Amino acid sequence: MFEEAPDRWQHPRMQPEPQANDLVCEIYHTALNPEDYERLVDTALGALALTDTEPSEDGPEFPGARPIDPVMAARHVAQAGTILGQSAPFPELEKLFALYRHLPAVLVAPNGLVLHANPRALQLLQGSVCLPLACSGAFSGALSGTVTRRIPLRYEGTQDAVFTVLFDPESQARLAAELAQSFDLTEAETDVLRLSLQCLGRKEIAQRRGVSPETVKKQIERILTKTGAGSQMALSQLGAALWRDPGVPDPATNDPGTAPLPYFPDERSFLHRGRRLSYRVFGAPEGQALVFFHGTYGFCRWPQAAEAEAARHGLKVIVPIRAGYGNSAPLSAGADAPGAIFADIAAILAREGVTRAPLVTLENDSALGFGFARAFPEMVSGMIAFAGVLPVTRKAQYRRMDKWHRFVVGTAHYTPALIPLVAQGGFHFAARIGREEFVRQVYAGSPPDVALLTEPEARAAILDGTRVALSPRHLAHRAYALEMQAFARGEWQKAVAALRGRLPVVFVNGATDPIAPPATIAEFRADYPWITFELLQDAGQFVFFRHWGRLFAHLPAIVPRED
């Protein structure tokens, strides 16, 4: 089975069969060129479709495969992963943070949300997730008196942000003095430079100094000539590169007891057995608890109207941010991924005083939902799985998946040693082209999913909520790889069977879902008659973000009942 793809695989019948060496070549090509990630997808799918084998008794009935040797695969993945790890997923941003590494610097969204901050900025922010900066540039609280240099930019192709350097008055004065000494500036020029570095315009500088704007213009021109800078922005960048303050030690960044900068204003975190666990809580503070599983892409936010509706329904929604996502510490080497994830979630619920609650899951997380309910049956009253999937038991179910999802599931099943690189390369690819373009490419076969990016509330929830998985602060590819390996093993079949007749389970799926299209849902209905299925024609895998109202329609069936 070959997929249509550009270049070498465009006419598969005229090409020789892809061999293991082709896959090895594409592994290294992806490491060097993550923007060409789709070539690896096409080559791997060709390799997985070479032969047919009989289905195993305890695994999914996939088409046969002739993967490369597992030991060799692990070696190639380790080497290619090192190469890929040396590249910058957000090169322009990383250059700015490197340039201003000696000064407090933050990346701020248009609404004031801090997307990323270096250690010096974290000290000033004191855990605040929003930068209290008005249009006038005035701060309050711990940042009172701070001045800024702001650089508007875009990352991921479409996301607006402002790279902001924070100066306290003393450090700003030292910076001006350092430049003045290095380039032999006069006292008047030094004073103009100091005010310019505070982001003041020529008229404001002239008013402060009691001179005309024309005089200030000439002084700035002399400063630029002496320093060789082409503009005031270039001058500020030059100053940041030259400035040093050896008297100020670098802040500690590896202390697990230090609370990290939250990703969300309502994020909470705590230490559990030496690891930090983070989670969101929104809705009604004293209401009925509902646990939301954020999916392998980390959808931690709901559309704004959905979050407001949760509060009106008296729901306290808890979103555990799983190990390796956002501020939740990764699992230790060799840990049992599903079991450790379940223990983390149970610890979060215990901290919130939750003894029993319904679960709501997204896409592949139906596997984790079944597993958690089996591991902690007393804590779960029922489950709604949006875009839910069940164990793959037929070759046809595998073949119906679109190529991107078939690639990941097939690779995880047949050559799990490749999954770390598949995840790492995929996350770098998404960072390079942007999450919006990533959605358009990966979900091209589901027009309803792509169309959601034109709806402001859904777009905001999808892009802002997934920052725990992919952002300038963090790539969660290692956690994603661990979860996909556990999903592809198929061992959660026993967890599904264990819940039959014990808990109400509802699946809400879209007709253009790239993993479970209508024919697969029909087979699920036949195989699992005790599960309630709802198929919506105008939705795909993002069915929750289009039809979140179905959660409240099905909620009475899964909430705990009073004795």
TrEMBL record:
Asked if the record carries the keyword Disulfide bond, the reply is: no
Key word DNA-binding present in the record?
yes
Q: Which UniProt keywords apply?
A: DNA-binding
A GO BP entry:
regulation of DNA-templated transcription
Give one GO term, molecular function aspect: DNA binding
- SMART domains per the UniProt record, alphabetical: HTH_LUXR (SM00421)
One Pfam family assigned to this protein is: GerE
What Gene3D superfamilies would the database entry show? alpha/beta hydrolase, Winged helix-like DNA-binding domain superfamily/Winged helix DNA-binding domain
Highest taxon listed in the record's lineage: Bacteria
Which parts of the sequence belong to the HTH luxR-type domain? 178-243
Name of the protein this chain belongs to = DNA-binding CsgD family transcriptional regulator
